[in-house]
Amino acid sequence: MSKRRGWLLTVWAVGLVLPFASLASPGELDPATGRVVALEGAVKINGKLATVGQVIQRGDKIDTGKKGTISVRLPNAAFRATRSTKLTIAELVSKASRLRVKAGRVLSAVIPDTKYEVESPVVVAAVRGTTFFVEVQRATQTYVCVCTGTLELRDLLTRGPRQVLSATHHAANLVKQRGDVNTYESAGMLNHTDKEVEEVESYLRE
Question: Could you tell me the pTM of the whole model?
């Protein structure tokens, strides 16, 4: 075989191998993206109907509509947003995620020792390895439940003291903005179930 022919065959073989070598294995997450793992109803991402397997990126806007539900796996967490929820992926890197929830309900499970925050119009819920639920009931009122673990609540619009919630099985607060301060009232378990908690936590093992 001539040197030229041998060289051409080598280039051809490399051309076949390299594209396949660069592909991520099924289920592998890019450090700065997430993916849709489950859908019900007509959920939209950036104004277009969402699909299972769709890539989620920083800045994406999710609208579940009146009857939709979406479950998303992020690099360091998983969350489920149910009916009448509007949220934005405000931050998304390998060990830090932040959701900005304008309205609706979000149940989240977080990998330990990573940063994850859910921001409502009145409070920011920040965790490092916790399962928790947030419901924006109105512009001045947010319900927060720690399903298991520890959660820090920071006033978004005021400079009130930080609140810490810990639980092995659900501890909730109703956060209400009253003028330039927030008030915190104990509340029961609302609008989420232990079965849903288990389902969302299961996405972290996939």
Answer: 0.84
